[in-house]
């Protein structure tokens, strides 16, 4: 296999798993070269990745770190700031891993989509913010969106007859607080929220998993990615994270993808697509596992799921606003200022206030990426105000 690729967010959890898959592919004789890599501000980890991957170009998001990045990366072209991230994505790689966290990933991902690359999409927030526009852009440019999120990757793998799909079921581990009472969750700390039972992930997605907002964002992601109405997307708690999602067909058949909870599997699927490659991920031994369990999500203790479903029903302005509010709330929680139990209600308040806040001035379905950015910025401003009220309450 011959591939030239770029990794946006190389220093993160998905970025590191991507490097591990590349190493395996090289060990199998794959001819992999690297065009560009990016990070937010972790120069030491970025330099270490650059030594391994030998990219032609490196970008760091923080513009104040240009000199530090240059000093750490002698002999490599380096850029800093938003435009450098977009340049990294726009450079000629035939496969781009989109693994920046949050809405910050939208512009670089768009740059890769616009030149018709195969885009491995880990960053769900860019679809949540701008799903219909991004899909249209991909169609126009001939770009392929390959879902990396294990649930969407599972659906993608078993989507044999899209015209005959009745519904899909996204599975959810339930997160670290699956069995906690609402009272106990009120005192939950960032360390407890980030201690996911099955997956080792970045802080933001870990907190999203703890509130179940991650599953809500995934419901919106699936809605935009697979073109299914929200009512045809169910969520099922499956604590073992072995069945990664299911597709229910009109003839009564249900197809699922199973595997160990290891991101190298979905990442490898997108890298080798349309073929498959060998990975050293743990093999599934169902006899050893003995049993798999399932339960409905408790939307009373985890209201985020309901807010996300309501946003998906309301349209792209609502999903972009929900995402922005959630990013603000999670940031405040991780900084130790906002209680865990306030995260989802804060996002819900922004959604409830769509027609009474500054957000009412925007179209329900934004027609440009500039409009999406304006919705994102406005929703953040409103959410910061609401966060202050929650913190002082
Ligand atoms: N982790 C998983 O298993 C998993 C599974 C499915 C989907 N995802 C999705 O994949 C994305 C990444 O998740 P993750 O767990 O890998 O996150 P992570 O470990 O926090 O890594 C985030 C990456 O984004 C970079 N970054 C942070 N802020 C940035 C900014 N403002 N501009 C540009 N780059 C920035 C980080 O750089 P620094 O290191 O320099 O800060 C890092 O490279 C998320 O959208 C998540 O929902 C993750």
Annotation keywords:
393 residues; binds NADP nicotinamide-adenine-dinucleotide phosphate; alpha/beta; Rossmann fold; 17 helices; globular
Summarize the structure.
The chain has helices at 13-27, 43-53, 66-72, 82-90, 106-114, 124-141, 150-158, 182-186, 190-194, 203-211, 213-226, 264-272, 286-289, 304-314, 316-334, 343-352, 369-392; strands at residues 2-8, 31-39, 57-60, 77-80, 95-98, 118-121, 144-147, 165-172, 233-237, 243-249, 254-258. With 393 residues, it is of the alpha/beta class.
Provide the fold topology:
Blueprint: E1 2-8, H1 13-27, E2 31-39, H2 43-53, E3 57-60, H3 66-72, E4 77-80, H4 82-90, E5 95-98, H5 106-114, E6 118-121, H6 124-141, E7 144-147, H7 150-158, E8 165-172, H8 182-186, H9 190-194, H10 203-211, H11 213-226, E9 233-237, E10 243-249, E11 254-258, H12 264-272, H13 286-289, H14 304-314, H15 316-334, H16 343-352, H17 369-392
Parallel strand pairs: 1-2, 1-5, 2-3, 3-4, 5-6, 6-7, 8-9
Antiparallel strand pairs: 8-10, 10-11
Helix pairs in contact: 4-5, 5-6, 6-11, 6-15, 10-15, 11-14, 14-15, 15-16, 15-17, 16-17
Bound molecules: NADP nicotinamide-adenine-dinucleotide phosphate (NAP).
Residues 9-15, 39-42, 45, 61, 85, 99-101, 104, 122-125, 149, 199, 201-205, 263 line the site of NADP nicotinamide-adenine-dinucleotide phosphate.
């Amino acid at each position: 296999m011959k591939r030239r690729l770029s990794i946006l967010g190389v220093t993160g959890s998905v970025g590191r798993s991507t490097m591990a898959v590349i190493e395996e592919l090289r060990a199998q004789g794959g001819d992999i070269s690297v065009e560009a890599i990016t990070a937010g501000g972790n120069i030491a980890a970025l330099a270490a990745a650059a030594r391994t991957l030998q990219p032609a170009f490196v970008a760091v998001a923080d513009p104040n770190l240009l000199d530090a990045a240059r000093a750490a990366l002698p002999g490599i072209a380096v850029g800093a700031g938003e435009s450098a991230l977009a340049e990294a994505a726009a450079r000629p790689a035939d496969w781009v891993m989109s693994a920046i966290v949050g809405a910050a990933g939208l512009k670089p991902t768009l740059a890769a989509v616009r030149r018709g690359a195969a885009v491995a999409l880990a960053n769900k927030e860019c679809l949540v913010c701008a799903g219909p526009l991004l899909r249209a852009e991909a169609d126009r440019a001939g770009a392929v969106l390959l879902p990396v999120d294990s649930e969407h990757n599972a659906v993608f793998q078993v989507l044999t007859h899209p015209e005959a799909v009745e519904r899909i079921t996204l599975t959810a581990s339930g997160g670290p607080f699956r069995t906690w009472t609402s009272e106990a969750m009120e005192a939950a700390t960032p360390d407890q929220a980030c201690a996911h039972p099955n997956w080792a992930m970045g802080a933001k997605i870990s907190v999203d998993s703890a509130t179940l907002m991650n599953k809500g964002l995934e419901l919106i992601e699936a809605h935009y990615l697979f073109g299914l109405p929200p009512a045809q997307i169910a969520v099922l708690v499956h604590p073992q994270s072995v069945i990664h999602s299911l597709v229910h067909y009109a003839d009564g058949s249900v197809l699922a993808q199973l595997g160990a909870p290891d991101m190298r599997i979905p990442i490898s699927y997108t890298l080798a697509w349309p073929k498959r490659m060998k990975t050293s991920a743990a093999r599934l031994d169902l006899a050893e596992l003995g049993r798999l369990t399932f339960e409905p999500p408790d939307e009373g203790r985890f209201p985020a799921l309901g807010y996300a479903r309501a946003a998906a029903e309301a349209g792209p302005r609502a999903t972009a606003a929900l995402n922005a509010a959630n990013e603000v709330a999670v940031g405040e929680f991780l900084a130790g200022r906002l209680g865990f139990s306030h995260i989802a209600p804060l996002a819900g308040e922004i959604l409830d206030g769509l027609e009474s806040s500054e957000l009412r001035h925007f179209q329900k379905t934004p027609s440009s990426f500039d409009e999406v950015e304006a919705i994102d910025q406005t929703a953040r401003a409103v959410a910061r105000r609401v966060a202050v009220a929650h913190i002082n309450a």
